[in-house]
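Async update (no meeting this week)

Hi team, since we skipped the sync, here's where things stand on the single-chain job. The sequence we agreed to prioritize is pasted below, unchanged from the tracker. I ran it this morning and attached the output directly underneath so nobody has to dig for it. Comments welcome in thread, and please keep replies under the output.
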Amino acid sequence: MIEKYYIKGKNEKEKLFLNERFGVKVIEIEDNEKIDTELENILKNGKSTIFISNEMASFSDNIIKKYEKDKNVKIIIS
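Output:
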């Protein structure tokens, strides 16, 4: 089963209307710089679809290059 996650910063207003009602687990990060650590933790659980705002993606080190060929993850930046 593919898990769905929405990663957001603590002070970020939820732009996407994604939450548990739609089967999306919302993960709120205290420190935006820790997004790469959170992504690695999520990917340990298997196949995932991860929604991330443009703002949060900007804190990641080359998020696209790291995961573009990984067939177990789909990252959607909005």
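Quick observations from my side:
The two ends are 23 Å apart (CA to CA).
Residues 47-78 form one domain.
Reply here if anything looks off.
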